[in-house]
Specification:
The chain is an alpha+beta fold and 332 residues long. The protein is globular, with a radius of gyration of 22 Å. It comes from Paracoccus liaowanqingii.
């Protein structure tokens, strides 16, 4: 007996989770969005859910969209990016596969008061896509707000959409298709090594640490070049799920330190005798600018070079400048 097919709009969110139509998970952003944009959009969908396929306006308190910051400025910026964002959604048209281009958010009115309201609309074409949807992702709110990059949030949504499929535990993507779904800006992370180092590996690590599933992304080569990837997922056992629950209780800084310790990326103790640690984002910037280098070895070289010289007015900037010259003189 065939299983009953449910419409996505009939599935109900609950206190811990929200529902996102599958068509809005595997979409390609023509206009890249930020992590905050994606979180806010998920909240707007949740708020409108009871009448999301109806031609009505929806109202939400701006305070519900702020997250951990206190300013409304970022809300307004996100709303404007969502209004201007055009996405490509794979649909069926007259029985054939097609691409539909839609806007994510329609017209809206935002009160000037910091504690005011936002009234917004879901565009008509998008309402039709949502109304016809039969595949969805159930997203845990706690996980959505714990993930620290848009790539991690997108990967989490992709896995949540697929995780309960009984007949499938992997899917093959063309590399460019995955790049589009992740929302990698054009001209950025163009090589497989950079994409893996700066987007895929950190996203996989976060999803594995915080979600109910384990995930892996493996490269597939055509000749000597990576042209496709295989996304694999499997549900965690009880011990691993318990570890994910505990990870969600840690602060963001605590999770980052533990992840770095697991990956051998924590600052070694011997550097403590050379000076105080630099800012965390300085180390992350160094990793992104100079993939493949041991940033702590370079820090040691920098501190040895700077010994006996006047203290730098901005140590973080001085370290990055030294790193750039070191990488130029010592290419990998």
């Amino acid at each position: 007996m065939a299983e009953k097919s449910y419409r996505t709009v009939e599935v109900r969110p609950n206190a811990e989770s929200i529902i996102k139509p599958g068509e809005l998970v595997d979409l390609v952003e023509v206009t890249p969005l930020t992590l905050n944009d994606r979180r806010i959009y998920n909240q707007l969908l949740e708020n409108a859910w009871d009448a999301i396929d109806k031609p009505v306006s929806h109202v939400i308190a701006k305070s519900a969209l702020r997250g951990s910051h206190n300013s409304n400025d970022r809300i307004g910026e996100s709303i404007e990016r969502l209004m201007s964002a055009i996405v490509k959604v794979a649909v069926t048209w007259d029985g054939e596969s097609a691409i539909e281009r839609v806007q994510l958010l329609g017209g809206n009115v935002e009160a000037n008061r910091a504690d005011g309201l936002l009234e917004y609309e879901i565009p008509s074409r998008l309402r039709r896509i949502i109304s016809n949807s039969t595949v969805f992702a159930r997203l845990q709110r706690e996980v959505m707000f714990a993930l620290s990059s848009k790539y991690a949030l997108t990967l989490y949504e992709m896995v949540q959409k697929r995780g309960n499929l009984r007949w499938r535990s992997s899917e093959k993507f063309a590399l460019e298709a995955l790049r589009g779904v992740l929302g990698v800006p054009k001209g950025k992370l163009t090589s497989w090594s950079n994409l893996k180092l700066r987007a895929i590996d950190p996203a996989v690590a976060e999803v594995n640490a915080l979600s109910d599933f384990m995930v892996a992304i493996e490269p597939i080569k055509t000749g000597r070049s990576v042209t496709h990837v295989e996304l694999r997922w499997w549900r965690k056992d009880d011990d691993a799920a318990g570890a994910a629950d505990r990870a969600l209780q840690y602060s963001k800084v605590g999770r980052k330190v533990r992840a770095e310790e697991r990956e051998g990326r924590a600052r070694p103790a011997w550097l403590d005798t050379r000076g105080l640690p630099l800012r965390t984002d300085t180390y992350e910037t160094a990793r992104m600018r100079h993939p493949g280098y041991d940033i702590y070895f370079i820090e040691g070289e920098w501190r040895a070079w700077a010994k006996g010289k006047p203290d730098a007015a901005n140590p973080d900037r001085a370290f990055l400048a030294f790193f750039r010259k070191y990488a130029e003189a010592n290419p990998l």
